């Protein structure tokens, strides 16, 4: 449910065009028929040329090393890809810890001190974001 995901993630604050859902539905259904490397870009027709140029040349939408233009920020651009399902967990209770440890250890190339890592997470964990079946994650 695309609308539910957008609302749950807090991506729509009620200040965008009333056509946002139609635009996202069109992008989502179009991406389903195109190669996995295809992206859809949602931005204003009045967006700064450098943003459009950066997206076309596969660079970040807004360069962090350059001064920000007052009429453009990275939050003004939405890049969509049809790919792995993304799951957000607000607690470790719903995370498959075996898969989490396997991914972390294969990524770091060494065994993780699980007890020490978990004790650090207790005080600062916000969310665990999992891509696919633990092909990637962000903590």
Account of the 3D structure:
It is a single chain. By secondary structure, this protein is an alpha+beta fold. The chain has two domains: 2-81, no CATH class; 86-138, no CATH class. Helix content is 36%, strand content 14%. It is elongated and about 50 Å long. It starts with a helix and ends with a strand. The relative contact order is 0.12.
Distance between the termini: 24 Å
**Could you tell me the radius of gyration in angstroms?**
18 Å
Q: Strand order within the widest sheet?
A: 3-4-5
Number of helices: 5
Order of helices and strands: HHEHEEHHEE
Task: Give the low-confidence spans.
Answer: 70-75
Count structural domains: 2
Structural class: alpha+beta
Number of strands: 5
Instruction: Tell me, briefly, the overall form.
Output: elongated
Share of helix, binned: 25-40%
Question: Mean pLDDT, rounded to whole units?
Answer: 75
Strand content range: 5-15%
> Sheet with the most strands?
3 strands, antiparallel
Index terms:
single chain, 139 residues, alpha+beta, three-stranded antiparallel β-sheet, two-stranded antiparallel ribbon, 5 helices, 5 strands, 36% helix, 14% strand, Vertebrate-like_GNAT_dom, mitochondrion, L-glutamate N-acetyltransferase activity, transit peptide, transferase
Which helices and strands occur, and which strands form pairs?
Layout: H1 2-8, H2 20-31, E1 39-42, H3 49-56, E2 78-81, E3 86-89, H4 97-108, H5 114-124, E4 128-131, E5 136-138
Antiparallel strand pairs: 1-2, 3-4, 4-5
